[in-house]
Design a protein that fits this description.
mainly alpha, 75% helix
């Protein structure tokens, strides 16, 4: 669900930056509504994860902490790569929009 949320946000951001071929519904409203709905769903899942798993195990219910840890790790890796090896960043983002 978090990946779907990220994809919806990526579509909106991409077409805000590059409006060529943009259609108000397909590239703006629909992905925006999807991101809103998925964001609400992710919050509900995270707050009610104990009921979804059916357990009070700290280990099982602590798995939700992996999401922000993975996001922070990915962002940290990107910032480290950008400061040390700009060629690697350009290989991923040839437009240079990522910094």
């Amino acid at each position: 669900m978090v990946l779907l949320l990220g994809a919806s946000l990526a579509v909106v951001v991409f077409f805000v930056r590059d409006p060529v071929g943009r259609h108000w519904w397909r590239t703006g409203v629909a992905p925006g509504l999807a991101a809103l709905g998925l964001g609400i769903a992710v919050v509900l899942v995270l707050f009610n994860y104990r009921y979804l798993t059916g357990t009070r195990s700290v280990l099982v219910n602590g798995l939700t902490l992996l999401i922000p840890v993975a996001l922070a790790g990915g962002a940290g890796r990107f910032l480290w790569l950008r400061s040390r090896d700009s060629e690697a960043v350009r290989a991923v983002d040839p437009s240079g929009a990522a910094g």
